[in-house]
Amino acid sequence: MNEAADQTHSLNCTQCGAGLDVLGGGRVKTHICSYCGAELDAQDDYKVIQQFRDMKRPDTPFDLGMTGQLWGVEFTIIGTMAWTEYYEDKRWTWVDHQVYSPTHGYGWLTVDKGYVTYTRKTREIPSPPFISNSTIEHNESRPLVKFQGETFQYFSSGTASPTFIEGEFNYRPSLDDSVRYVELMGSSRMLDIVQSGREREYEVTELPDQAALLSSFGVATNRRPRQKGTHPLENLVRSSLQLFTRNVALIGAAVAVVLGIGLSAKGEQIARSGQTAVSSEITLPFEVTDDTGLTEITIEANANNSWAWFETELTDAEDEPVAAFERGIEYYSGSDWKEGSRKARTRLTLPTGTYTLYLSMTEAKVDWTGGRLATNMSVTVRQGVAQVMWVFGAATFLGLIGFLFLGQRFLHHQSRWSGSDWSDD
What we know:
Layout: H1 3-6, E1 9-12, E2 19-22, E3 30-32, E4 38-41, E5 47-51, E6 67-70, E7 73-87, E8 90-101, E9 105-112, E10 115-122, H2 133-138, E11 144-147, E12 150-169, E13 179-185, E14 190-196, E15 199-206, H3 210-216, H4 240-264, E16 268-272, E17 276-277, E18 282-288, E19 294-301, E20 306-316, E21 321-333, E22 338-341, E23 343-348, E24 353-366, E25 376-385, H5 389-416
Antiparallel strand pairs: 1-2, 3-4, 3-12, 4-5, 6-7, 7-8, 7-12, 8-9, 9-10, 10-15, 11-12, 12-13, 13-14, 14-15, 16-25, 17-25, 18-24, 19-23, 19-25, 20-21, 20-24, 21-22
Helix pairs in contact: 4-5
């Protein structure tokens, strides 16, 4: 490519005489006049090839001749092409802008749903090199493609046609073109397999920083597109404070759970009844010598696919009532599941002293196939038991905070894939 061919200059349209800027370097093949729609052959003295009429200009924040930077490389917008895709009663539109850099060649800026992406062609061939409609329709899982050491998953496919063409291009576009594409998503890039006639090409798409890109190209604030939804390549970005809060919450929840389990084991058994028939009453005297913690009373019964109801009364050394409470036990199980518990616990704050516990079963019922009423019961008393509800409460609170962050990531992931036409049904 010689230096003269790369220099920006102008010409007059050989069809209508309008002045046109030449922006795209020596490999431009076609120039479509912005005024009359004439397609001029840039490699044959701008001879008129054909003329496009009645083209509706698309809504885009970019104009021909705008210059800006992408990852530190200066590009100029040299061409505009609007596309439309139909499927059943749905319609999609987007706008491609061919861009040119004297050092990095040609690429595309695409405006779709308010987002601007950068696409370049690649000569590297993925594996497999093609995904047919039959594969997409009959695969039970998303088709995968390997490219540059990365796995890309199927995102969408379709057939699109141009509705507007203007400016310079390094090939010869036509309103009669029809392009089939298969779009696949990687971790930070999209890979497109593009088929036009017998020609197959591969394109890689990236999502630049939107604010920096629009500012670089001098797009006025009132022309900036309004973004709709989440772009597939839009990563969830969190501040260092948010990341710190998430990590502290999850680690704190885990520590609280371990601490709670450890504290739950604290305590000393001071009384235990033997197995007693539920038709009788248990009378169990005990003495509390450690009032620094709670006193835990555990009732146990051998209910199976049934429930039982117990009444408990607690008196002091003078036989004066101290506390009374009722507790239920229910336990159900199957070949590979179980539900409920054969134990019921109550924790009380009791001063040191001598006490007597009275326990009796007041009601029981079988309400599941193969059930058996409880026949035996027992009671255990422990002292110095730690109050762990606040620890598990803290674990729950911190865990919710942590999982809110994880849930946000999950929802963002779902939103990224929401535009995919793949269905697992």
